């Protein structure tokens, strides 16, 4: 079941976030993420519209929206491959038009997940805090064929050196 998160859910969501983010971003020192724990708890999650997926009363994943931006989507690593991320993504899509997100380029599993679900790359940027390249992606499922081809061409150009 997917439901709106409450303040009482915050400890479980933080546990999911820390475990999943350290696994997905193994190219960044775990201490970096541990240092972001308080920001996540005190600012990041409370400022977002957070929804969680739970089974038998146990949170297994969540997403955070900030307007049309998918700011976070995390699933407990022990629950990967069970459709939880897909269900969360569909719920987020139903709540806004033109969903946008950013994902580290080196997080190939997440990049493939979003591409499989119809997201296309629209930009590149460097996360100054972590020092890694992020892909900015847009939900392209609502684009017509010409718009999608143009976005695909732009993505290829972004990846070219110089």
UniProtKB/TrEMBL annotation:
Keywords: Acyltransferase, Transferase. Residues 1-140 form the N-acetyltransferase domain. The keyword Transferase applies. The keyword Flavoprotein does not apply. One of its GO terms (molecular function) is acyltransferase activity, transferring groups other than amino-acyl groups. This is Putative acetyltransferase. PANTHER family: PEPTIDYL-LYSINE N-ACETYLTRANSFERASE YJAB (PTHR43800:SF1).
């Amino acid at each position: 079941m997917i439901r709106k998160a409450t303040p009482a859910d915050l400890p479980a969501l933080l546990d999911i976030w820390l475990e999943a983010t350290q696994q997905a971003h193994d190219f960044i020192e775990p201490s970096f993420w541990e240092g972001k724990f308080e920001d996540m708890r005190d600012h990041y999650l409370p400022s977002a519209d957070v929804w969680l997926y739970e089974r038998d009363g146990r949170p297994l994943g969540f997403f955070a929206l900030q307007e049309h931006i998918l700011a976070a989507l995390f699933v407990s690593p022990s629950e990967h491959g069970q459709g939880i991320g897909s269900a969360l993504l569909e719920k987020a899509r139903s709540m806004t038009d033109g969903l946008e997100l950013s994902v580290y380029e080196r997080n190939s599993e997440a990049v493939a997940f979003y591409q499989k679900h119809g997201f296309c790359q629209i930009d590149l940027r460097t996360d100054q805090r972590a020092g890694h390249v992020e892909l900015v992606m847009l939900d392209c499922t609502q684009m017509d064929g010409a718009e999608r081809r143009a976005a695909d061409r732009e993505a290829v150009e972004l990846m070219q050196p110089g």
